[in-house]
Write a structure and sequence with these properties.
The complex is a heterodimer. Chain A contains 12 helices and 10 strands. By secondary structure, chain A is α/β, with parallel strands linked by helices. Chain A has one domain: Rossmann fold, CATH 3.40.50.300. In chain A, strands 6-7-8-3-9-10 form a 6-stranded mixed beta sheet, with helices on both faces. Chain A has a 4-stranded antiparallel beta sheet with strand order 2-1-4-5, covered by helices on one side. By secondary structure, chain B is mainly alpha-helical. In chain B, helix 10 crosses helix 11. The longest helix of chain B is centred in the first third of the chain and has 39 residues. The chains are: A alpha/beta, B mainly alpha. The interface between A and B is medium-sized, with 27 and 20 residues. Chain A: This is Phosphate import ATP-binding protein PstB. Chain A: Pfam families: ABC_tran (PF00005).
Chain lengths: ~300, ~450
């Protein structure tokens, strides 16, 4: 899909995008009246940012995959990252819990602040960061263990439960929050891989919830699921928003429109446009955003 | 030699036939102004096969039955009083005739009937050779003409060539399977003969191994107990696995999970070189270096270790098996999907927690499979044990003492001046069959486990 998109992009894209971004954001900031760079075009439901990124660039070897991303992830909201394949949205998502560290040859520059704390700081323990920022992957990836053990995995390694009873409580609570408890409460000892695709994905969400994260990253969580399972996950995301900050990468524009409050449109490693989901989908300012959401490319 | 030359001629002729066929098909296409069903090369191949297969079949027939026919013709012409001789003497007569015919000469003055028979044999052999050449030429020509006449654009040459190739592939697999069947049959046959001398109960449950040199049929069944040999085999294999499993597994974990690609590219082949060292070299390494070193080390801590002992053989065999385990386990660990690791890392587990709690459990069935394959390798290993285990077939529990194994005993029973009909050598077949069943069972188990593991992710 990116191969289709690329020829349409003029060779001078980074420069152009840069100007486009400032053109876009400045009037909004001014209109909002806040003046500070942290201001968001949310109007009435303006909230504290949970994560702030400044000039985030990612390199795979010598090629630059992200060209300086500047944005904010509002707390207790769902932020959707959309864009054609290969645009860098998953790469950006993986910066937020430093999963890019596990990829050979990947390098991240710039600043990512979570609650004002630089997550790429040398003194920060990446293991603790990942406990605070949970992740749900594209394909459901339950461990080849029992349903109980899948949920108990995180609390065990972080020593969250002092007793067996407490651990069972955490498992039950997580499964309930993920809306899976009623379906699996009688077969917690059975392997997690034996569940259906949608159940597996909810199991993975429960697994992430079990370590009480603050942020949950979801990388196309529904792309391997059927419409009914997708609808259940979307409902779940909407409920989880009360307790967690959620960032979701999705290829489905309908999904972004349904579940998110804020939307960021990525294209060829640039953040082209961001704003209220309603505004992005009804009144996009950038030509490329408009082309993408109307299905002209991608 | 004659046959080999003839076969080479046929192969060359097949090359020419290929050219003929290719050109003929092109002409056919031009003259009928239609498109060929297959590529010209397929027609050439088909013609070559039609020439080659009948010709080679004739050669094969002559090689299989030519000599027998000639012999029976010569034998039929012998005087009746000679034919009435017992089988063994008749065989001697035939050998004398063959020696005369080949001009090799015989002891003593040849009898008149022998000379005439030798003459007859010689003429028959010449006739046979001529008939062979004529037969091959006729078969080749007939095949060539037939195939060339069949060529037309509508002939499905490609499908026919592919059918022949398929038969060839089936034939090759059949050879491998039949060989296994043949080995098992011969083992079973000889083993049954052995059990006519020694009862299976004495063999499988006997605790003494000391086969004496008794004459055939005396009925002595003493000292054919399998248990001391089996114990030695198991003891050495166990020591070998104790050495190779932890080391091999840790190598695999490092290579699959931690090693940077550049190091991995160098270190992996280097480790696998260990697998390429001939086992006899490991054997004298054990005998001259490892054994004395272990003995010396034992003396330092007050242990009495013999230089040639179960320990020496086991340790060196363990080193031999390390690359086997590390390489197989490495493949299995890398096969564990990346999403599994990501899931664990994403929950805040460290690399080592991820390996211990997710990757290894997921890879465990595969590693068990690798382990069992390595065990069957250790059980079947011979040369290291011959040189380094001390060859003392005694049932004793001390790994620092000499032992003997099933494989070593087979070597011992089948080398030297032996009578193949005596239980002393027949026991080797019984031992071989036992070993075969043992390793086959382990391999089947291992393959079963490995296959079950694969189902989990696909």
């Amino acid at each position: 899909m990116s191969a289709q998109a690329e020829p349409k992009q003029p060779p001078s894209s980074p420069v152009e995008t840069g100007t486009a971004m400032t053109d876009l954001t400045k009037p909004v900031v001014a209109a909002d009246g806040a003046g500070a760079p942290s201001a968001q075009p949310h109007g009435a439901n303006r909230v504290e940012p949970k994560v702030t990124t400044t000039d985030v660039k990612v390199f795979y070897g010598s090629s630059e995959a992200l060209h300086g991303i500047q944005t904010e992830i509002p707390a207790n909201q769902v932020t959707a990252l959309i864009g054609p394949s290969g645009c860098g949205k998953s790469t950006f998502l993986r910066c937020l819990n430093r999963m890019n560290d596990t990829i050979e040859g990947a390098r991240v520059t710039g600043k990512i602040l979570m609650d004002g704390e630089d997550i790429y700081d040398k003194s920060l323990d990446v293991v603790l960061l990942r406990a605070r920022v949970g992740m749900v992957f594209q394909k459901p990836n339950p461990f080849p263990k029992s349903i109980f053990e899948n949920i108990a995995y995180g609390p065990r390694i972080h020593g969250l439960a002092k007793s067996k009873g407490e651990l069972a409580d955490i498992v039950e609570r997580s499964l309930k929050r993920a809306g899976l408890w009623d379906e699996v409460k009688d077969r917690l000892k059975e392997p997690g891989t034996g569940l259906s695709g949608g159940q597996q994905q909810r199991l993975c969400i429960a697994r992430a919830i079990a370590v009480s994260p603050e942020v949950i990253l979801m990388d196309e969580p529904c792309s391997a699921l059927d419409p009914i399972a997708t609808a259940r996950i979307e409902e779940l995301i909407d409920e989880l928003r009360r307790n967690y900050t959620i960032v979701i990468v999705t290829h489905s524009m309908q999904q972004a429109a349904r579940v998110s409050q804020k939307t960021c449109f990525f294209h060829l490693g640039d953040l082209v446009e961001e704003g209220d989901t309603d505004q992005i989908f009804t009144n996009p300012r950038d030509k490329r955003t408009q082309d993408y959401i109307t299905g002209r490319f991608g | 030699m004659n046959t080999v030359w003839l076969a080479i001629v046929v192969l060359v002729a097949m090359g020419f036939a290929y050219q003929f066929g290719t050109q003929a098909s092109r002409r056919a296409a031009v003259s009928s102004a239609t498109k060929l069903h297959s590529l010209p090369g397929h027609y050439g191949m088909l013609v070559a096969l039609w020439l080659g297969i009948p010709a080679l079949a004739v050669i094969l027939l002559f090689a299989l039955f030519g000599d027998t026919v000639v012999r029976s013709l010569v034998m039929g012409a012998l005087p009746p009083d000679i034919l009435a001789l017992p089988q063994a003497e008749l065989l001697t007569v035939m050998q004398r005739i063959q020696a005369l015919a080949s001009g090799f000469g015989v002891l003593g003055e040849p009898a008149a009937y022998e000379l005439s028979a030798a003459e007859r044999l010689r003429t028959l052999q010449t006739t046979r050779d001529l008939a062979l050449v004529a037969g091959v030429a006729a078969a080749a020509a007939a095949g060539l003409v037939f195939a060339l006449r069949r060529i037309s654009p509508s002939l499905r040459a490609r499908n026919e060539v592919e059918a022949v190739v398929k038969i060839l592939l089936i034939g090759c697999s059949t050879v491998a399977i039949l060989t296994t069947v043949g080995i098992v049959m011969s083992l079973v046959g000889e083993t049954l003969r052995f059990f006519s001398y020694v009862s299976p109960v004495d063999f499988f449950f006997g605790t003494v191994w000391n086969p004496r040199f008794v004459t055939v049929g005396s009925g002595s069944a003493d000292g054919y107990g399998l248990l001391p040999l089996l114990w030695g085999t198991v003891l050495i294999a166990a020591i070998a696995m104790l050495v190779s499993l932890p080391v091999g597994l840790m190598i695999a974990i490092y290579m699959a999970e931690y090693a940077p690609p550049k190091l991995r590219a160098v270190a992996k082949p280097l480790i696998e070189i260990l697998a390429g060292v001939p086992t006899i070299v490991y054997g004298f390494f054990a005998l001259t270096i490892a054994g004395p070193a272990l003995s010396g080390a034992g003396a330092l801590v007050g242990l009495d270790i013999r230089a040639t002992s179960a320990l020496t053989a086991g340790v060196v065999m363990g080193i031999m098996i390390i690359p086997f385990i590390s390489s197989l386990s490495d493949d299995i660990i890398t096969q564990v999907p990346r999403t599994m690791r990501d899931g664990s890392l994403g929950l805040g587990a460290t690399r080592s927690e991820t390996i211990k709690r997710v990757v290894l459990p997921a890879a465990l069935p595969g590693i068990v499979g690798a382990f069992l394959l390595a065990v069957s390798r250790a059980i079947g290993e011979t040369m290291i044990v011959v040189l380094a285990a001390g060859n003392a077939p005694v049932l004793q529990p001390n790994p620092f003492e000499s032992v003997s194994t099933v494989t070593v005993t087979i070597v011992k029973q089948l080398t030297g001046d032996i009578d193949f009909a005596s239980p002393q050598s027949l026991v080797a077949f019984a031992l071989g069959l036992t070993l075969f069943v043992l390793t086959l069972g382990l391999n089947v188990l291992a393959l079963y486990i490995v296959r079950k593991y694969r189902e989990q992710y696909e």
